[in-house]
Specification:
Length: 89
């Protein structure tokens, strides 16, 4: 059985587990070093990133109003795949 736990490795190679790990017997492990963690954003940077992301929400336009009802969705799918609602191509 494979188990994954997060750990930190210091410059001397000492490994510190960041979460509890319970084992029933001595086990072997493989350690994969990840790239350095990206610095956490400040609250201001987080808010700015959210504003930038929000600009993209709703940016796509199909050229006509859309609905969330199943018939409208089915019609859009049928148009996309080149056939009418009755299955004709």
């Amino acid at each position: 059985m494979l188990t994954t736990v997060e750990a930190e490795v210091d410059v001397n190679g000492a490994v510190t587990l960041l979460e509890p790990l319970r084992l029933n017997k001595k086990s072997r492990a493989i350690l994969t070093l990840l790239e350095s963690e990206r610095a956490l954003l400040t609250e201001e940077e987080t808010q700015l990133a959210e504003v930038r992301f929000a600009r993209w929400i709703g940016a796509a336009s199909l050229g006509y109003p859309t609905g969330a009802d199943n018939e409208s969705i089915d019609a859009d799918l049928a148009r996309e795949y080149g056939r009418g609602l009755d299955g004709d191509e």
